[in-house]
């Protein structure tokens, strides 16, 4: 910790929140300074824990008056360093954790930004509804962070990204004013759609304090399968086949190259090989339906049966029940941690137009292998969204740190190919610190100018999460 | 027509587009000055018909340099006066009508802003896909206008508003620069989501010249029913029942009070009473499914059978085939024109949270009747979206003009109630001219300030569609 806050400001902040909620003790402050990959360690003169929207507004106003920058933090589970303070005060939203209201008729839920994702899901579930946003950190990620980063995850195919699930927002602006946009409407064209500005802008334009979110009918049947295919191209053909026949019942289509399955089997707890033989590519597929009397498992059997007959797939196992379904999902979900256990990895969270996914994987795999023989590319993930976590595991026996020193070099190789395909170098995790310079490289001057104009219009003094997403012009 | 353009500017515009595409002849200009309800007649020194994005950029740059404001126009089918020029040059996008590309694997279509909605639908259909955006003016409305107004229509329940269907945009900015955001990605968090700024901002921040839009699998079966219910409250119960059981197969839930059905039967061509008896409320319901072997008609029979047994509905007729389905849809679609034939009508395009729809209808009906006995309220439309076209037909025998002179008074009554329910006074048609002052009345100072900051950041000289949506501060 460094950059102590001016004594006057600290005193005002303590007056506003009470001493207990202004942390300056280094031990208490420490957890708010690091992000989970350990790539960054920040510094902050204080951690503020306001207990209400009004308190958030008050402390933001105090900081603004003192010229003190602020960084909003939810569960601090981000993967890009977007919540790491670089001398700014941290405003933790953790005490704004209430589920304010569940409306099963309107199919909405109103929550404080600090509500933990799993708690939002549970509250919806208890009301007989589904809140579909979900990802690995659901037990500690807070919904405000998911909204601020427009998080994706495992259910995007049928239900969309966080942006698609937000109906209304309450936001504290950089000068401490509160914008109350907590509407629960499916249609609203009364002026500019202000909430869109704050979703996905990573706390650089405003601090989300509450949201109205969409709920959906709860599925009544599921089918989960693990499929063996000859190639990524076959996976694309299978995806199109399934989308055409299952449409919005197709709730997941996750891709794993053979190396990803190897990793999951090697490091995953109790992981069992799902198919007898080995294949060039694998897909985890889920259908679900809320229709009474539906049998998504049978539907899946039918469409995969067709795919087997026409030679589109080589083999498939369909989960007989919830336990087996969980085990198959477990293989896919084991990959990120398994890759960490396998040594150093250089990560990319990219998307390309769906039709070019197989070409992208081929090109990117070849280019990375050419740049470092022995490297083990592991492009896996949300295939149906065109979103691949194109991670590179270090060559066996290489020094971890030596490998990681090539991070920028591989970024360049992979992102250049993504760019060539008209893709995105920041598909679902956001930009934060880690991709801020890459963003500038791959974004047109016109787009950068528009982003800077927006930033300047809403946060003219650059007080909110400074240095993240978009750098000021040099 | 008035306000002649400076001769220098006209000469440059003619040089840029050719004489044929700079219209100043009053007869040729006239159609671009009126909107279809005849509420406004504009004035414009010239109509420009650029033939490419580059030409749009060139003429915008020329106008910007001359300080000449511009209004973009698509099919000029808007209902709010948003495309009416008030002394500005009109830039018609009609020559940018090409369907540039259909990608059935990626499930996207790339179109020029001037493409007619029906042509976009047809191009998707020919590729075996569905482009779901649809509304009454589909034969002449152009897609750029639908995007600029975030149009809704008949398929929002399952597929969303125009905003939800846009993956990428190409936009000419107020200074004539082109922002190329024509990405075809389902996930992209690389910086601020700039396209959201232009969708629904009615040409006040930029001129949409092309878009990448989402396509969906084409339904393989349909079921359409006309349902008689005791009340709007019962309609809400039925909607929740259907949503729970059909989920995303529920593709339409349209509401008609008895007076709306009367109007359709009185004025609709060949309209036939769909149910033997009379009921307190009516709903037109559609299920559809792309699953091979699905039978949405049978599904609809099942869920409506349950609703009949539990007394949720009083009667229903299910279309036996496409012809009958069209006839039922025809009753709903006949309402707007039938209401015009019935005399003067004062219109409101509003939305409220779904659960409060019955209360809203009751309150608004009573308040309007109290204000003018004999008035015939006709709140009908997209019930499932919480969106009601709350239109008021004049009392029988009253003078049309005398009735219409009460427009503002009824706006106040209806919009006050909408506001009380946390609703929107501009649900799907936008703000334009007709609701500009109403918007200011019902929008918080914080929200207005944000909107003005955005307008100023993107269009500092106020050259794009001046006076629409958001007025400059006084």
From TrEMBL, chains A, B:
Keywords, ordered alphabetically: FAD, Flavoprotein
Domain of life (superkingdom): Bacteria
The keyword Flavoprotein appears for this protein: yes
PROSITE patterns per UniProt: FAD_PCMH
Domain FAD-binding PCMH-type: 40-218
Short name of any one Pfam family annotated for the protein: FAD_binding_4
Protein family: Belongs to the FAD-binding oxidoreductase/transferase type 4 family.
Full protein name: FAD/FMN-containing dehydrogenase
Species for this entry: Methylobacterium persicinum
């Amino acid at each position: 910790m460094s950059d102590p806050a001016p004594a006057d400001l600290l005193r005002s902040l303590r007056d506003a929140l009470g001493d207990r909620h202004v942390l300056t003790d280094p031990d208490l402050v420490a957890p708010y300074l690091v992000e989970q990959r350990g790539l960054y360690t920040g510094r902050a003169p204080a951690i503020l824990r306001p207990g209400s929207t009004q308190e958030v507004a008050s402390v933001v106003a105090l900081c603004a008056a003192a010229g003190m920058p602020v960084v909003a933090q939810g569960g601090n589970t981000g993967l890009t360093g977007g919540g790491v303070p670089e001398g700014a005060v941290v405003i933790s939203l953790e005490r704004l954790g209430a589920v304010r209201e569940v409306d099963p008729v309107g199919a909405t839920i109103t929550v404080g930004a600090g509500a933990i994702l799993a708690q939002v899901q549970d509250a919806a579930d208890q009301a007989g509804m589904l809140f579909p946003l979900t990802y690995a950190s659901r037990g500690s990620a807070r919904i405000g962070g998911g909204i601020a980063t427009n998080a994706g995850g495992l259910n995007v195919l049928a239900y969309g990204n966080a942006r698609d699930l937000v109906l209304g927002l309450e936001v504290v602006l950089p000068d401490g004013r509160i914008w109350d946009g907590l509407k629960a409407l499916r249609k609203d064209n009364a002026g500019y759609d202000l909430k869109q500005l704050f979703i996905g802008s990573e706390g650089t334009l405003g601090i989300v304090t509450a949201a109205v979110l969409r709920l959906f009918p709860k599925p009544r049947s599921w089918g989960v399968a693990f499929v063996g295919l000859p190639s990524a191209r076959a996976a694309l053909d299978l995806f199109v086949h399934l989308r055409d026949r299952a449409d919005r019942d197709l709730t997941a289509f996750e891709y794993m190259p053979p190396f990803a399955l190897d990793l999951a089997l090697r490091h995953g707890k109790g992981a069992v090989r799902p198919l007898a033989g080995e294949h060039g590519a694998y897909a985890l597929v889920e259908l679900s339906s809320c229709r009474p009397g539906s049998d998504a498992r049978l539907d899946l059997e039918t469409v995969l049966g067709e795919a087997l007959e026409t030679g589109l797939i080589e083999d498939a196992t369909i989960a007989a029940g919830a336990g087996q379904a969980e085990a198959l999902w477990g293989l896919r979900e084991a990959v990120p941690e398994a890759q960490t256990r396998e040594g150093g990895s250089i990560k990319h969270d990219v998307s390309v137009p769906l039709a070019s996914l197989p070409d992208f994987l081929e090109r990117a795999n070849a280019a990375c292998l050419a740049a470092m023989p022995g490297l083990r590319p592991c492009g896996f993930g949300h295939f149906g969204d065109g979103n691949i976590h194109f991670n590179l595991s270090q060559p066996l026996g290489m020094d971890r740190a030596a490998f990681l020193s090539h991070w920028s070099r591989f970024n360049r190789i992979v992102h250049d190919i993504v760019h060539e395909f008209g893709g995105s170098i920041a598909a679902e995790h956001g930009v934060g610190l880690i991709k801020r310079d890459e963003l500038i490289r791959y974004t047109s001057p016109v787009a950068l100018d528009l982003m800077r104009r927006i930033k300047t219009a809403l946060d003219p003094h650059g007080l909110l999460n400074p240095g993240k997403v978009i750098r000021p012009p040099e």
